[in-house]
């Protein structure tokens, strides 16, 4: 990926994992839906576009995630159950699976999002 693309990526603010679930916290960004849609489709959630956006004049459109507050979207298939929760300043994604698929999820997710570096203030 080119440097310009990486610079404009949404950032992951926090991660928590268990054997069958992952929680990611994202910064709000106007391009969030296009990035998360590519991630979900690559993960095998082919119905993601209909769950996240709507077709207007045969073109897939998404709401501005910055304006979504206290909204939850759910996408699932036989392997994953994904919840996107839009808060005031952050977007939370909870991915549950029947098997431990942490490595697969992380490998795909980090193609589209990067982790925000946090300086230690202690």
Q: What does the model show?
A:
The structure is a single chain. The protein has 122 residues and is of the alpha+beta class. It has a single domain, classed as Gyrase A, domain 2. It is built from four helices and eight strands; from the N terminus they run αββααβββββαβ. It has helices spanning 3-7, 32-43, 48-52, 102-112, and strands at 11-17, 21-27, 54-56, 59-61, 71-76, 80-86, 90-97, 114-115. The model is unreliable at 1-7 (pLDDT under 50).
Structure keywords:
six-stranded mixed β-sheet, 122 residues, Gyrase A, domain 2, globular, alpha+beta
Could you give the topology of this structure?
Elements: H1 3-7, E1 11-17, E2 21-27, H2 32-43, H3 48-52, E3 54-56, E4 59-61, E5 71-76, E6 80-86, E7 90-97, H4 102-112, E8 114-115
Parallel strand pairs: 1-8
Antiparallel strand pairs: 1-2, 2-7, 3-4, 5-6, 6-7
Helix pairs in contact: 2-4
Provide a count of the helices.
4
Q: What is the percent of helical residues?
A: 25-40%
In percent terms, what proportion of residues is strand? 35-45%
Order of helices and strands: HEEHHEEEEEHE
Give a short synopsis of this structure.
This protein has 122 residues and is of the alpha+beta class. It is built from 4 helices and 8 strands, in the order H-E-E-H-H-E-E-E-E-E-H-E.
